[in-house]
Design brief:
The chain has 324 residues and is mainly alpha-helical. It is 73% helix and 2% strand. The strands form two sheets. It has a two-stranded antiparallel sheet with strand order 1-4. It has a two-stranded antiparallel sheet with strand order 2-3. Strand 2 (159-160) and strand 3 form a beta hairpin. The longest helix is centred in the C-terminal third of the chain and has 29 residues, at 295-323.
Amino acid sequence: MKKILGILGLLVFIYLATWLFSDLLTGRDSFLKGYTQMNLLRRTSLFAIISIGVAFVIISGGIDLSIGSVICLIGVGFPWLLSTFDWPAWVALPVVLVVGGVIGIWHGFLVTKVRLQPFVVTLCGLLIYRGLTRGITADQKQGFGTGDHDGLKWLASGELLHLPVPFWILLIVAVAAGVFLNRTIYGRYLLAVGNNEEAAKLSGIDTGRVVMVAYVICSFLAGLGGVLFVLDQGSAQPTSMGNFYELYAIAAAVLGGCSLRGGQGTIVGVVIGAAVMQVLRQSIILIDWISPNIEFAFIGMVILAGVTADEIVRRVAARRRLAS
């Protein structure tokens, strides 16, 4: 709870600081404008969905660097199937989402059965999925035509009860993820595996299956994110779609209280972490004296700060245990 309150306080501080330096002191009305706020909520929702996915892998003690490339593969592949093969949307959509899940099964198999390091597996995935996408599309931008595809765009660009539809999708995903993590036996197993995989295995937990589930959830939500991102943008370029999105997702998870050592994390914290990242990004865009070229420097500093804080907390806790 303290971590959630801390990250929530950080979100409020950054939000107010952005409003102060971009609007109040300049006499403009850019940050609090309705369009800006709706777009901020939409982008926060989209990035929070993929951040929840990577949080499951991080909680299990792993990492997934391939998220951006999975988003690219699914996000580009979806309109590619529609335009190149004239697949109906109701067929192409479940197919690409299944592909996302299958990628997670593949990652889980390599990590749990072949015993490869998650860093290596997903780093290779980052290269493979991007390369496949560029190969099958010949680096050509993929977009949607007219007709029944237009209705799908409502999922990413529409509004429901005066809020972006992605917000409602995030709400469903977050509630389901929270129930899974905190109210089911598999959620408790996941936390146990992240804390101490060997001890979890000795206690009778099928650690391989638990880790597999984490990677499937991560890749499936990355695939869902890919569909929503391409629907939001209207088209996708294989060379650029999803670039560095894994960094936003990992940073949001770390900010939200997920320890890179595994065994810790909350869904609410991850969602707030995603909001912090997007408000930071918006502040970089709107505040004149901040160069937009340092966006990734901010992300790097956020991840470094999160890892450093986690290490300090771990050492303090260890000293307290020894003292008692």
